[in-house]
Amino acid sequence: QKEVEQDPGPLSVPEGAIVSLNCTYSNSAFQYFMWYRQYSRKGPELLMYTYSSGNKEDGRFTAQVDKSSKYISLFIRDSQPSDSATYLCAMGTDSWGKLQFGAGTQVVVTP
Amino acid sequence: DTGVSQDPRHKITKRGQNVTFRCDPISEHNRLYWYRQTLGQGPEFLTYFQNEAQLEKSRLLSDRFSAERPKGSFSTLEIQRTEQGDSAMYLCASSDIRDNEQYFGPGTRLTVT
To answer: Are strands B108-112 and B10-13 parallel, antiparallel or unpaired?
Structure first.
């Protein structure tokens, strides 16, 4: 079993809808949680960075971390066709060092 | 400074040849990371530097792989005697010493024929 599990999708939503993404993990030592967006054949782009449990909001993006359930979420409000991409969750145990990534969820926002 | 840069963006090589990739991190970042990504998967950690010191290496990094970061600036990743299984996107990331926000470059796509 992988340390970080993420549904590969694709997840198709109409423009303007809320996109809901999530990851589960097994390693209770993870403390740092990130969401990246990756367009085809490009490098990942950091969207959200959170430490420990709680919520964080940045514009149309909200990240949630529930360490007791080992579950993290990303919500995208008012989705746009330009949000169509693969979304990767990533986690680390320390404020340095390697990140463990999920396999990514492909999101398609249709006009 | 506009971010992490990588060169080349795409490399095609024949099996058995050696290849070298370069990464230039964000200028004020002390930490530099290499990852490998195959189709349909998330990036997998290969190795990590703090300044010029290589602090961690994954078991994925076989003896054919070597990474350096002379003078704590740019880094190179060399693969010797390439195999078809080495075909992947090689990603470089950097972060500041204060946190683990890792910023990625555009990647080098390696194709071994």
So the answer is: parallel
| Interchain CB distance below 8 Å, B41 and A49 | no
Spell out which residues of chain A touch residue B40, defining contact as CB-CB under 8 Å.
8, 103-104
Contact A98 B33 (CB under 8 A): yes
Task: Write the CA distances from A105 to A6, A15, B16, B91, B95, integer angstroms.
Answer: 7, 18, 35, 19, 24
Phi, psi of B40 (to 5 degrees): 80, 5
Question: Per residue in B13-61, pLDDT tens?
Answer: 999 999 999 999 999 899 999 999 999 999 999 999 999 999 999 988 8
- Tell me the per-residue pLDDT of B101-112, one tens digit each, with 9 for 90 and over: 999 999 999 999
**CB-CB under 8 Å, B42 with A6:** yes
Helix (H) or strand (E) holding B77: strand B75-79
B91 chain-A contacts, CB cut-off 8 A:
43-44
Count of Cβ atoms closer than 10 Å to residue B54 Cβ: 16
Residues from chain A that touch B48, judged by Cβ atoms under 8 A, are: 96-98
